[in-house]
Amino acid sequence: MKKVMILSALLLSTSAFADERAEIMANNCTGCHGTDGVVEDSALISIAGLNAEIFIETMKNFQSNERSSTIMHNVALALSDEEIAAMAKYFEALPKGEEK
Ligand code: HEC
What we know:
This protein is an all-alpha fold and 100 residues long. The chain has one domain (2-93): Cytochrome Bc1 Complex, Chain D, domain 2 (Orthogonal Bundle). 63% of the residues lie in helices and 0% in strands. It has 5 helices and no strands. Helix 1 (2-26) crosses helix 5, helix 3 packs across helix 4 and helix 3 packs across helix 5. It is globular. The N and C termini lie far apart (53 Å). Heme C binds at residues 28-29, 31-33, 45, 47, 50, 55, 58, 69, 71-72, 75, 87.
C-alpha cells in the first residue's frame, strides 16, 4: 500500500513537471503564434486549441518538410518527440481565440 502511494505521488509530480516544462517551451512560440497561442493579428496563425493529434502530425510534417516552411522546419527539428507531445497537450488545453 505504501509503495502504491509513493508511486502515485511520483506519477503526479512528473506530470506536473511536464506541464510546467511545456509552458516554458511554449513561450518560444508566442512571438509568432501569440501569447497563449492566440493571435490577434490575423496575418499570423493561432495554435491554441489545436487538436493534439493534428498538432503532432503537423510538427512531424514540418520536420520532414512534407509541409514546407523554413521557419517551422527549424522550430520542429529543435524539438524531441517528447517535447512535441507535451506541447500538443499544452496547446490543445488552451482556449481558442475568437473565430475570425
Ligand atoms: C519565427 C516565427 C515562428 C515561431 C517562433 C514558431 N512558429 Fe509555428 N508557424 C510559423 C509560421 C510562419 C507558420 C505557417 C507555416 C506555413 O504553413 O507556411 C507556422 C505554423 C505552425 C503550425 C501549424 C498551424 C496550422 O494551423 O496549421 C503549428 C502547429 C506551429 N506553427 C507550432 C509552433 C510551435 C509549437 C512553436 C514553438 C515551439 C512555433 N510554432 C514557433 C512561425 C513560427
